[in-house]
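F.,

This is the one I mentioned.
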């Protein structure tokens, strides 16, 4: 019996004794349940998007434009969902996308994700804005595949340090996120006047880095903006929480001011809007790992990636969090696939909500897909076990969709499987 049918059978048998799944199988219901569990600020940060959130809607509507055409009387009794990606054999075409500030969803944060990834043999892409250092997660994952997402900061030294740490902790690829050189205009966060980084959340990769900690004592080269904020009970409480949450002893943190210095330094160097194609050569000089570019949506940019020796692409619009009214990822995928013409792997994120979405993406030429927000909702509801259940559900849904469409392996999924 296949994993997919085993999964179904297991759910129904448990139901006979009154046990239901830990998390809803329907992603909309999953999000609604998670919203009840999360704080207002956490839900806004995780679920929110840029502007009026038209891009979030477009990501879903884009998948709806494609219809699967099942084919009959093809022997699909034996099915194979495995693939090889950068020399590693994976059981299914799913990866866990990099998502930051997971401590807003669950106290175990990235550690819970790492354990779930290991238990399901699903590659995890460490977030640059993680709540837990990459080394801590790598110790949990051991030999299970893991990559590192890089936000290119204003400090090339820090970029080099992050790349070296990624190599040292066994990452098998570096994913450079291109679409966040500036923070998008996110209405939900702005209405709450809340940015988690200012509260010391999601900066564990920085505070665990020797170069970043050395930079804390260097004088800023930028002129700080005028701040008319007065000290009041709310700001004092925030400072105390920051000192308590930060690595090290509470009293030392409070007296040294290091937590506040770290936040200020992070804000100063976090993003680099001056980044160009020419900068990519610098990273290649400092790592032997495969480099993927995340955020590619235009065929011409895909061609430039090839010209600059890039090893892979992730078609992404950052889950609709950066540009309101942007093209959906599934709309962008065919043009990128045509430009790349099979020369390097193409992954896709933003809008993947189940097995049929993954099937459609692979039929349009994607090599693999990345799960984003849904696993954070699962984390919020049931921690590690919730994420494992979600991954198992997605894998089973995909395998069954593939079989019912008349395909017994990933190689048989192609454009002829779809219509519009």
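My design for it:
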């Amino acid at each position: 019996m296949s994993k997919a049918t085993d999964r179904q059978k297991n759910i129904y048998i448990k139901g006979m004794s009154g046990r239901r799944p830990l998390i809803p199988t329907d992603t909309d219901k999953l999000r609604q349940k998670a919203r009840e569990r999360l704080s207002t600020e956490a839900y806004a940060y995780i679920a929110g998007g840029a502007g009026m959130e038209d891009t979030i809607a477009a990501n879903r509507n884009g998948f709806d434009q494609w219809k699967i055409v099942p084919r009959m009387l093809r022997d699909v009794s034996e099915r194979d969902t495995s693939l090889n990606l950068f020399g590693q054999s994976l059981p299914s075409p799913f990866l866990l996308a990099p998502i930051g500030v997971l401590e807003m969803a669950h106290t175990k944060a990235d550690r819970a994700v790492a354990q779930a990834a290991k238990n399901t043999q699903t590659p995890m892409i460490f977030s640059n804005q993680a709540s837990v250092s990459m080394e801590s997660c790598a110790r949990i994952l051991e030999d299970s595949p893991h990559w590192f997402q890089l936000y290119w900061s204003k400090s090339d030294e820090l970029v080099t340090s992050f790349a070296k740490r990624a190599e040292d902790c066994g990452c098998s690829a570096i994913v450079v996120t291109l679409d966040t050189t500036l923070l998008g205009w996110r209405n939900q966060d702005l209405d709450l006047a809340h940015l988690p980084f200012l509260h010391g959340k999601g900066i564990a990769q920085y505070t665990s880095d020797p170069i970043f900690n050395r930079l804390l004592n260097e004088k800023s080269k930028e002129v700080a903006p005028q701040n008319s904020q007065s000290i009041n009970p709310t700001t004092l409480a925030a400072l105390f929480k920051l000192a308590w949450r930060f690595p090290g002893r509470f009293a030392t943190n409070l007296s040294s001011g290091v937590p506040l210095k770290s936040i200020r330094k992070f804000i100063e160097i976090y993003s680099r809007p001056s980044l160009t194609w020419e900068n990519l050569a610098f990273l290649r000089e400092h790592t032997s790992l495969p480099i993927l570019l995340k955020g590619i949506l235009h065929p011409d940019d895909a061609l430039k990636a090839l010209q600059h020796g890039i090893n892979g692409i992730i078609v992404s619009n950052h889950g609709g969090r950066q540009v309101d009214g942007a093209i959906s990822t599934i709309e962008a995928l065919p043009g990128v696939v045509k430009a790349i013409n099979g020369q390097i792997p193409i992954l896709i994120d933003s809008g993947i909500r189940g097995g049929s979405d993954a099937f459609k993406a692979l039929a349009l030429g994607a090599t693999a897909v990345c799960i984003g927000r849904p696993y954070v909702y699962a984390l919020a509801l049931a921690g590690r076990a919730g994420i494992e259940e979600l991954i198992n559900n997605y894998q089973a849904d995909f395998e069954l969709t593939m079989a019912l469409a008349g395909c017994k392996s990933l190689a048989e999924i192609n454009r002829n499987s779809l219509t519009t």
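The longest strand covers residues 291-296.

Talk soon.
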